[in-house]
Design brief:
Elements lengths: L8 E3 L2 E3 L7 E5 L6 E6 L3 H17 L7 H17 L1 H12 L3 H24 L3 E3 L5 E9 L2 E5 L7 H12 L3 E5 L6 H12 L7 E3 L4 H10 L5 E5 L2 H14 L3 E4 L5 E4 L5 H13 L11 E5 L3 H14 L18 H16 L3 E4 L18 E4 L6 H4 L6 E7 L2 H9 L6 E5 L3 H10 L4 E4 L18 E2 L4 H7 L1 E9 L8
Parallel strand pairs: 7-8, 7-10, 8-9, 10-11, 12-13, 12-17, 13-16, 15-16, 17-18
Antiparallel strand pairs: 1-2, 3-4, 5-6, 6-20, 11-19, 14-15
Helix pairs in contact: 1-7, 2-4, 2-6, 3-4, 4-5, 9-10
The structure holds NADPH dihydro-nicotinamide-adenine-dinucleotide phosphate.
Pfam families: Aldedh
Family: Belongs to the aldehyde dehydrogenase family.
GO molecular function: oxidoreductase activity, acting on the aldehyde or oxo group of donors, NAD or NADP as acceptor
Length: about 500
């Protein structure tokens, strides 16, 4: 049987269909190693063409000059169409990323939610009129940058892309989007839906290429005026350095090693459930995973016993099985990296309390599965406690009191998120203020709200996405003074 043609991508009104021998990206289904799809691979030459098409679209098409309610109508329509295709998109997502079915549905809902929310922001956004201090008006206007680049990782396809494209388009920009080579298919679907919803040609161009050539070409291109990146800290640092040299703004959403704290007065049952979903949701492939657990010494044994018992019962399985609680990791290379970290932890003196291996179930033998794993006996300075593993691996450490846990929690280069469980509201407030993190959860974890800003302290990033901050990230401020003087000014 002839292999199916790779999915093309669109450069303005043209399709890049790829010819025989042209490079493709092959997406592998992490559940069984089969081919989930192939797409035509973009090259740096395509970046040049895409930048000029996007500038043409930005300058020629009336998009940024449309009334906000007209722009909002298209964004609402994109959200509506995403929901109308919820199940097929979730099915594609499941094969591209290996996420369990429910998570895939959530990704599509969240993507639609971003378009709906930024449609509302677009329509209700108010520029600032400053109080006059003389014979003039002055005002601050949010203006688009023009052409911006958005680069996304593989862990939440379509949601990550929507989180950037929706506010950037709402602000009036043209967007060049490079998804991860691991999961290129959903971004192409998003571009199709945007075009069908009436977004003018050239305002969202998806370039499914590799980071080191297409991603780097985008960031370094003189026609790109702003870059928004989500991914690993080292990649973010390299992109930030190029952006710094070019003096363009960079929004950087990077990695984490988030502390999750259980105080002795907490509702321990709820805390254990929260800790488990904090680390094992998305098989730990989540930037905000609560991957460093701190438990107060007086309840350490109790909490660990309950945690280990419940982790043993966690259902690792195929993504389409409704009973599955944790699916595979995204690729063989990533699974091996996670397993390598567990070996490092063992070498550092860590004790694996549960997991620490691939599952024995033969039904899972062809995929990239790894058992949910809990390790203790390490010092907070150990590599397994300091480096982002991005898999279902929890390191547990006991602590004495509030001062001790705040010091240990902050003893990391990262600062993306933190969580705590306690019945003492005054302590919750104190600790929330002391923790160096962009998001802090009290008696909940991984709660997320589209209107609440998201981003990192320290090595976890720069800038904030979501909420009104999300629109500001993709806008530059122009101050306009409007003189009303009857007499000529000046000397
Ligand atoms: P990477 O940093 O490896 O890659 C992210 C994206 O950047 C990919 O599209 C990649 O392309 C591209 N890229 C790689 N090198 C360059 C370069 N030199 N210039 C431009 N682009 C480049 O991250 P992963 O995809 O492995 O994702 C996991 C990471 O993402 C974790 O560290 C995680 O914490 C972080 N993350 C952060 C989130 C946040 O909001 N703070 C949310 C989700 C994930 P390609 O893969 O095609 O080569």
């Amino acid at each position: 049987m002839e292999a199916p043609h790779p999915t093309p991508f669109r450069l303005g009104a043209q399709w890049r269909t790829g010819g025989a021998g042209d490079p493709v990206i092959t997406s592998i289904d992490p559940a069984d190693g089969s081919v989930a799809g192939t797409v035509v691979r973009a090259t740096p030459a395509d970046v040049d063409q895409a930048v000029s098409l996007a500038w043409d679209a930005f300058r020629r098409q009336p998009w940024r000059k449309l009334r906000p309610d007209q722009r909002a109508a298209t964004l609402y329509e994109i959200g509506r169409r995403l929901l109308a295709e919820r199940e097929p998109l979730a099915r594609l997502q499941m094969r591209d990323s290996g996420k369990p079915w429910k998570e895939c549905l959530h990704m599509v809902d969240s993507a639609a939610g971003h378009f709906r929310y930024y449609a509302a922001v677009c329509e209700t956004w108010q520029n600032e009129l400053t109080s006059p201090r003389g014979e003039y008006f002055s005002m601050a206007l949010a203006e688009p940058f023009g052409v911006i680049a958005a680069i996304t990782p593989w862990n939440s396809p379509i949601m990550n892309e929507a989180q950037k494209a929706a506010p950037a388009l709402a602000a009036g920009n043209a967007v060049l989007l490079k998804p991860s080579e691991e999961t290129p298919q959903l971004a192409l679907e998003l571009a199709r839906i945007c075009t069908e919803a009436g977004l003018p040609e050239g305002l969202l161009i998806v370039l499914p290429g590799h980071g080191e050539d297409v991603g780097a070409a985008l960031v370094g291109h003189p026609g790109v005026r702003m870059v928004s990146f989500t991914g690993g800290t080292e990649t973010g640092r390299a992109i930030g350095a190029v952006a710094g040299r070019r003096l363009i703004p960079a929004g950087l959403e990077l990695g984490g090693k988030s502390p999750h704290i259980v105080f002795e007065d907490a509702d321990l049952d709820r805390a254990v459930a929260g800790v488990m979903s904090g680390i094992f949701g998305s098989a730990g492939q989540s930037c905000v995973a609560g991957s460093r657990l701190f438990v107060q010494k007086s309840v350490y044994a109790r909490v660990m016993d309950a945690l280990v018992a419940r982790t043993r019962e966690l259902r690792v399985g195929l993504p389409h099985d409704p009973a599955t609680q944790m699916g595979p990791l995204v690729s063989r290379a990533h699974r091996d990296k996670v397993a390598g970290y567990v070996d490092i932890a063992r070498g550092e003196g860590g004790k694996v309390l549960v997991g620490g291996a691939m599952p024995a179930d033969p039904a899972l033998a062809r995929g990239w599965f790894y058992l949910p794993t809990i390790i203790d006996g390490l010092d907070n300075r150990a590599r397994a406690c300091q480096e982002e593993i991005f898999g279902p691996v929890l390191v547990a450490l006991p602590f004495d009191d509030e001062d001790d846990v705040v010091a240990q929690a902050n003893d990391t280069a990262f600062g993306l998120a933190a969580g705590m469980w306690t019945a003492d509201y005054a302590r919750a407030w104190r600790v929330a203020r002391e923790i160096e993190a962009g998001s802090v959860w009290i008696n909940t974890y991984k709660q997320s709200h589209i209107a609440t800003p998201f981003g990192g302290f320290k090595d976890s990033g720069l800038g904030r996405e979501k909420g009104l901050h999300g629109l500001r990230l993709y806008s530059q401020v122009k101050s306009v003074y409007w003189g009303l003087h009857q007499q000529p000014m000046g000397l």
